[in-house]
UniProtKB/TrEMBL annotation:
This is Cyclophilin-like domain-containing protein. InterPro entries: Cyclophilin-like, Cyclophilin-like_dom_sf. It comes from the Bacteria. Residues 94-205 form the Cyclophilin-like domain.
């Protein structure tokens, strides 16, 4: 049992901290914004360990966004799928006057994304983990391998909301099954993605080397 301090009236109440049956499973978690989630968080999905309040708040919010995913391992089969080796089309992500090199995987989903290029996407960074934004059109998810454990440098796709995600950090949280589709990986300039700010316009285009 642990003690919960209510932020509104300062009272305390003994309670076990954990996900309830009614905890939200957010299929639209990737584009979610900080203000709406923090205003509605009533439970936490990870044990209260006495960490700094700021770190815990982020962990709680991320756990809610990913539908009560935990920082530990999972028995879901998709968790064991590593990011596929990337061998495909070379592209460039341009943001704020910087160019970031990346390679799209040789998969149906990644090839459909390549068919949209050049493409401009508005990316948002809500949790200090990934830049995410919706594509103008969905890409195929049929038969695609998925993972619930995205890795920094990976470019992923969340089919439920046609959302593109460029991960640059690992804060120990997994995403809800069936997971993300791996589209490719950033090869150079990852720090420019990290430092691009919370809202950034990114233009994705084929690199000069990709043209015949």
């Amino acid at each position: 049992m642990h003690t919960v301090v209510h932020a509104i009236d300062g009272t305390t109440q003994a309670a076990d901290l954990g996900c309830t049956d009614s905890a939200p499973i957010a299929s639209d978690f990737l584009p979610a914004r900080r203000t709406r989630v923090l205003g509605t968080v009533s439970t936490t999905c990870t044990p209260w360990t006495g960490r700094a309040v700021g770190v815990t708040a982020v962990a709680v919010a991320v756990a809610v966004l990913v539908g009560c995913a935990t920082a530990g391992g999972t028995t879901d089969p998709a968790a064991a799928i590593p990011a596929p080796p990337v061998s495909g089309m070379q592209v460039v992500l341009r943001a704020g006057g910087h160019a970031v090199g990346a390679t799209l995987a040789d998969t149906p989903a990644a090839r459909e994304l390549a068919g949209m290029l050049p493409l401009t996407v508005e990316l948002t960074d809500a949790w200090g983990q990934a830049k995410t934004g919706r594509l103008p059109h969905p890409v195929t998810a049929e038969g695609a391998a998925r993972t619930v454990q995205p890795v920094p440098g990976g470019i992923y796709y969340w089919p439920d909301t046609a959302t593109l995600a460029v991960y640059y950090d690992d804060i120990g949280q997994s995403v809800p099954p069936p997971g993300l589709i791996h589209l490719g990986a950033v090869a150079t300039g990852m720090d420019r993605i990290t430092d691009a700010g919370s809202d950034v316009t990114v233009r994705i285009e084929r690199s000069a080397a990709a043209h015949p």
